[in-house]
Fold this protein.
Amino acid sequence: MPIVRKAWQALCALLLAGIVLVPLVQVVMRDLFSAPLVGAEEFTRFLLVCLVFASYPLVVSHGENIRMGEFHDAMTGRFKRLLDGIIFLGAAFSSGFVAYATFTTIFDNLNNATPTLKIPFWVFLGSTAVGFFVACLQHLLRLRRRCRQEPLDHRPEVS
């Protein structure tokens, strides 16, 4: 799994670099050469959507979701495990539902595309569907780890 995580992180880093570079190139081309890139704004929006939803499973796998950490850390024992189970199941269900809804939306709109660049709708929303599906799996893995009383977080090594 570490190679998959590293590849996923590299993909997210490339998407982030694209979000920075596309507008930069657009500004340079427009202001220095009077030749703006057609569709740069749409492509930047596409990269942003991809980055947000592709990085969501990484957030889940590292346990960095928004939560009330102090309140959670103050709990102990059975109640904490029960609450964790409810949270993980609810999050897995929610992520799975969004993935399902996105997949059905994609299949209902297979012939549609974005207006300027004509990016197919399934490509545009594909990162949403895949991101939420993988996040659902991550929530279920965290639930399994919690049930087995294994450590939940995979903190990256800092050097």
Remarks:
- The mean pLDDT is 88.
